[in-house]
Amino acid sequence: VLAGRQGLNVTATVLDFDGRAASTSKVFQAEPDFKVGISRHPERFQVGEQQELKLVVLDRQGKKIPQGVLKAEVLQKTYSYVAKRNEQGDLYWEDESVWRRAFSGEVSLKNGQAAFPFDCAQGGRYLLAFTYTDAQGRQFTSATLVRVEWEYLPEEKRDRPYVPLGLWADQPAYKPGDTAQIQVTPQGPVSYYLVTIEREGVLTTQVVPGGKGPLTIPLPITPEYGPNVYVSVLGLSPRGDFPVLPGRYDTEAPAFVWGTLNLPVLKELEGLVVKINPGVQELRSHPGGQVTLDLQVTTPKGQGVQAEVALAVVDEAVLALTGYKTPTLDQLTRFDAPLGVFTGELRLSLIHQTPFYPARVEPLTGGGGLSAELLSKLRRRFEAVAYFNPKIITDAQGKAQVTFTLPDNITQYRIFAVVVDRGSRFASVERHLVSTKDFYLEPGAPGFFTWGDKFTFEVNALNATEAKGEAKLKVRAEGPLSLTVPEPAAPLGAKDSAKLKVSG
């Protein structure tokens, strides 16, 4: 764990006096002195495709180690029969997975970087592990899993006139001004590549010389490429050996390879800044008290904006049961435009047209809205939800104010707001509101008694003030119930609690 190879998943559960539980989990990962970095790569690729992994070693300050040696290991997942005995002593065989070393070697760091070419002729799952050993003999390892697959062609695609070309990008998404590094992994030699950037039409074209093995093609990303573009690469494979002898097949005739890749391009949108009671450091109230919230929506430069705010005040203990997170609208900017370019030749279609289904733009409130019949069946009061308003409109200065009355819960509420303006800007914010009393009791009495019962239960006295003293408990019963307090007083410190017993 301290070397950074493994982490710990720590889960903590807290029970209150009434037995209500709240849990949270976090991962503990020790910070190693050195980290071995592995470049991005496809998780799956075909047999015969060569992948080249870039390797770096970073220290705690994030600086590259200029020189050094990395140990490279390739482990293949296989299966083996293992002899075991059951509880009766009988021998039986069980099939278990085993990781076997398929390759072991060294790669050198030059100018802070190393390259490891990986080409596999057998399908399966592989673990690529790279270990760096420092001057003190300590080892630091990083590993990645890959799956090498045999190519499977459905019946309808077995007569395709091209060989698929493997393409992958160095990043999952790009911003305007970035340069995408597209790696091309052909299974044979290629003379030239025709590289086009497409969407509703052909945006750019270029011809790139080919060769044997992988090739990296840099593509600058411009603002016009948002929200996404498609990279199409068509390569021409040269003529190989000509079949001059009888009985030979023309397996090395001129052909072409083709592949396409979708590149998401994320534009930076100017967000909004939302504040809830900006002049108050801590929000506090008491059960049944009236709360006023001041909302302020501005641009990052501080200018007020008229916007629509969805505001909710919900019991934090209820939200913790499901791990609820304050919603954000970031995913509204993540969508792909369809490809409007078809690559083909005169005889057979390379990409068949897929009809686009009609696109519908519905309001964010859920389409057609709520009918009167549904509204009549809605429960209007939830004790866990202290306040909810899905449509608060701020003024021209970006300000709004709401007032509501808290339920009688003694708890912590989460106040969260989701904001959107008339354009495309949005934001989310959350704060906590503590609803408590200076002094209160939590009786732990059972739900019912029967004739002849003798019992003892506890009453929890909680002091939320800075004062300390003695807690004195008096009880009164009605009907045939008799209650006594064996110890009517108990010391009670500041911000503390005391348990007093009641018998009967």
**How much strand?**
over 45%
Count of individual domains:
4
What is the percent of helical residues? under 10%
Shape: extended
Mean pLDDT: 82
What is the count of β-strands? 31
Can you summarize this structure?
This is Alpha-2-macroglobulin family protein. With 504 residues, the protein is mainly beta.
Describe the structure.
This protein has 4 domains: 34-149, Immunoglobulin-like; 161-241 and 252-264, Immunoglobulin-like (Sandwich); 273-331 and 380-435, Single Sheet (S-adenosyl-L-methionine-dependent methyltransferases), CATH 2.20.130; 439-503. The protein is built from 2 helices and 31 strands. The chain has helices spanning 316-322, 372-377; strands at 8-15, 21-28, 34-38, 44-46, 51-59, 68-85, 91-109, 114-118, 124-133, 139-149, 163-164, 166-169, 179-185, 190-198, 202-211, 215-220, 228-237, 255-264, 273-276, 283-285, 290-298, 307-315, 385-393, 399-405, 411-421, 426-435, 439-443, 456-463, 469-472, 489-492, 496-503. The protein is extended, with a radius of gyration of 34 Å. The relative contact order is 0.10.
Features:
S-adenosyl-L-methionine-dependent methyltransferases, 504 residues, Bact_A2M_MG6, 3% helix, Alpha-2-macroglobulin family protein, mainly beta, A2M_N_BRD, 31 strands, extended, 49% strand, Macroglobln_a2, five-stranded mixed sheet, Immunoglobulin-like, 4 domains
